[in-house]
Known about the structure:
The chain has 372 residues and is an alpha+beta fold. 25% of the residues lie in helices and 27% in strands.
Amino acid sequence: xxxxxxxxxxxxxxxxxxxxxxxxxxxxxxxxxxxxxxxxxxxxxxxxxxxxxxxxxxxxxxxxxxxxxxxxxxxxxxxxxxxxxxxxxxxxxxxxxxxxxxxxxxxxxxxxxxxxxxxxxxxxxxxxxxxxxxxxxxxxxxxxxxxxxxxxxxxxxxxxxxxxxxxxxxxxxxxxxxxxxxxxxxxxxxxxxxxxxxxxxxxxxxxxxxxxxxxxxxxxxxxxxxxxxxxxxxxxxxxxxxxxxxxxxxxxxxxxxxxxxxxxxxxxxxxxxxxxxxxxxxxxxxxxxxxxxxxxxxxxxxxxxxxxxxxxxxxxxxxxxxxxxxxxxxxxxxxxxxxxxxxxxxxxxxxxxxxxxxxxxxxxxxxxxxxx
Length: 372
């Protein structure tokens, strides 16, 4: 009886170990879309109803400070805004029409915030005349394309009761702590890691600076607002994340980056990805799964002579199971068509592993020579 109970407990623990990362990746991929949908609905309601406008209109305020390139900030007060059950508050929408960016913004820049939204640096003001506002996001996420913003392009800070307009004046590459220029009319600064497709830790930051151009007190209607507020149970217009189905004994060998330290290279996106997926946390989350499968394959190959079942579980159609060393850099290339991640290739000097999404499960379909 004791052995049976122990066996059941191990199965439950293994199931939880698989379910939790799947839940986290699904949350990261869908919450941002929920936040955008919710804020667009509130904006539409304010435009359509003076009664709603009187209830909702209240610009959030923040602290002010001398701007510098930020690397992190702690979460602060939440902006006042009607929230969706089970979802965090959203302060407003940050938009850059020339690169099709529409991103939800939350106050602070904790890991949980940046996993689903753009963060607002708590040491700076919210967008306003004569103030400086800094917004931060991970590279390979909401700000993956801000390096394509050019002087004169428009950046919008959209809230239910107002839309604040800024015009891009310049872009800079800076180290943490380096001072940033100030402008008497006020600015918004978009900050992300540089290069914007880096998977490794980089101290450099890419900064887009846009100068205040004016505020319109009534927001224009947004395109086709939802019929009702989204709820936690509603599905967002975003793709499903691929998932892994690793044998628990193989996963227990340690398949994360923490267990297999290696210098990461770049994340490249190929195919015809939609703007919404390219400028979201989804490619980064998917690459993390791909990296785990890469290390799982490396461990399975190393143990093939004693336990071939590991390899057969994750790469049943691949005959090349020769072991390889953990070498750097490890680059990831994702093939994305529309809103669907179809495959990814992980390439190191030692080996190239191709992973394909089959029925939403990520499996290894080929193993070949490494890349330089």
